[in-house]
Amino acid sequence: MNFIFFWRLAKEKGFDLVVGALSEIVEKTGELPGNVFIFGEGSLRENLFQKFAGTPFFEDCSSLNDETITQKIELFETSEEGEVPKIYFFGWQSLFAIRSVLQVSHFSLMPSRFLETFGLSALESLSEGVPVIGFSKGGLTSFIPKELAIPFSPSDSENIKVLTQTIMEVSEKYSSLDSLLWSEKSEWDALSHESRRIADRYTEERWIWQVREILPSSTKKILLASDYTTLLGGIETHVQTIAKTLRQHGYEVEIFGWDSGKSRFSRLLRLAGLVYSLCNITSTFVIRKKLREFQPDVVWLHSVSRFLGPLTVREVVKSDIFSIVTYHDLGLLSPFPSKIESEAMIPKHPGLGAFLRAVHSNNPITPLATCCKYFQVYVLRKFLRKINIHIVPSAFLIPYIRDIEEVSEEQIVVLEHFL
User: 354: Cβ–Cβ under 8 A, 6 or more apart, which residues?
Assistant: First the structure.
């Protein structure tokens, strides 16, 4: 069997659970359950290298490019039985490289600790016919079949134990079936087919049809506003993707935000932007000018709490232009969205007390920063309530946006992502 992980190598994505499970399997059986392909970078990279680098079970492929990765993957399809399965670490690679490896993978490992608002990586995996193993909660619920869903526990050791058991069970079950059912359709084939069927629901055509239902019928110009135009992560990539899609369907689209660049000082500048967002007067004047010159029919807000801030949103509300906001994460409901591991952890009344209770740090600066974050969110909510349409990527978010943002349910629309 071939397993793949392609997320940030971070605790919130459960990468430590993956490393822990693979370590336990090697200790118990003396070998890996199959080849494991790992894509990504992050703070837990060293955790992987400390456990496996220098062993017969590890190969660092991070220096390879798209062409050589493709060539290496072709070797797996012709490899002889009896070769020792390995962990192949590819580091940060293009989507093309990930898709080429997905084509020879059997299962994706996605034991995300924190509550995902959607599962775009899971959807990417399913589109290649690769079923997902992970915690079936939040935005991932629709993408993980019952037999591959693992129960989430507050205990790391329990999560590692259950993930270990699941990986070993599926490896034994599906690899043995593949070896026995030469002429018949195996159970893994059925799982793979169901994965593709689920992914087929999330098409660009379906998405654009839903968007047209949301937009005023006279819409021709759309201004997308987000904190950063630099491709820093999922939000920024999504904004660029929908801009391209909207243009292909006849809309005139421009993107408003800050190009922070990718220099060695850009991370420091973005941290400063979190503070500056409280009183970002500059963006207020700039977006006022943009609205006057571009004259959009719709302003579509995305991430606005990391740089643009409340004053920019107020300017949009004052313009009386039809406005939309998308909630990509739980940043307006909690000071530490990556720490929210279940719906029970979302505060029903996210006041200052709830924000401060979420602080679990001895650093004296953290409570102060949390107070600043609360003040920013408090002001943002006042303006966001006046936005016409509130978009969530998954239905489970509807009651939280309705109650915490204090908007009517008729104003909330579920608009799922697409590939």
Answer: 347
Q: How big is the chain by its Cα radius of gyration, in Å?
A: 23
Query: CA separation (Å) from 7 to 37, 67, 88, 108, 111?
Result: 11, 21, 15, 10, 10
Helix, strand counts (H, E) of the chain: 15, 12
Strand arrangement, sheet containing 322-326: 252-258, 221-228, 298-301, 322-326, 389-392, 412-414
Enclosing domain of residue 313: 204-414
Q: What secondary structure letter does DSSP report for 11?
A: G
Same domain, yes or no, for 181 and 263? no
Write out the two tokens for 194: 């169901």
> What DSSP element (H or E) covers 257?
strand 252-258
Per-position DSSP letters for 202-255, written without gaps between them: S-HHHHHHHHHHHS-TT--EEEEEEEE-S--SHHHHHHHHHHHHHHHTT-EEEE
Does residue 180 have a pLDDT over 80?
Answer: no
Q: How confident is the model at residue 176 (pLDDT cuts 50, 70, 90)?
A: low
Q: In angstroms, rounded to a whole number, what is the distance separating the alpha carbons of residues 370 and 358? A: 9
Q: Of 30, 13, 35, give the one whose Cα is nearest residue 90.
A: 35
**CB environment 107-129: b (16+ within 10 A), e (fewer):** bbbbbbbbbbbbbbbbbbbbbbb
Question: Of 12, 6, 303, 8, nearest to 138 (Cα)?
Answer: 12
Indicate whether 53 and 137 sit together in one domain.
Answer: yes
Q: How far apart are CA 270 and CA 391, in angstroms?
A: 25
Give pLDDT tens digits for 261-307: 766 667 777 778 888 898 999 999 999 999 999 999 999 999 999 89
Closest to 309 measured CA to CA, from 373, 218, 353, 247: 373
Which pLDDT does position 224 carry in this prediction? 98
Q: Is the pLDDT of residue 30 over 60?
A: yes
pLDDT tens by residue, 140-150: 999 999 999 99
Give per-residue pLDDT as tens, 117-142: 999 999 999 999 999 999 999 999 99
Reading the block at residue 154, the tokens are: 């507050």
DSSP class of residue 119 equals: -
Total number of domains in the chain: 2
The reply to whether 54 and 172 lie within a common domain is yes
pLDDT band of residue 357 (cuts 50, 70, 90) is: very high
- Residue identified by tokens 């839903």 is 210
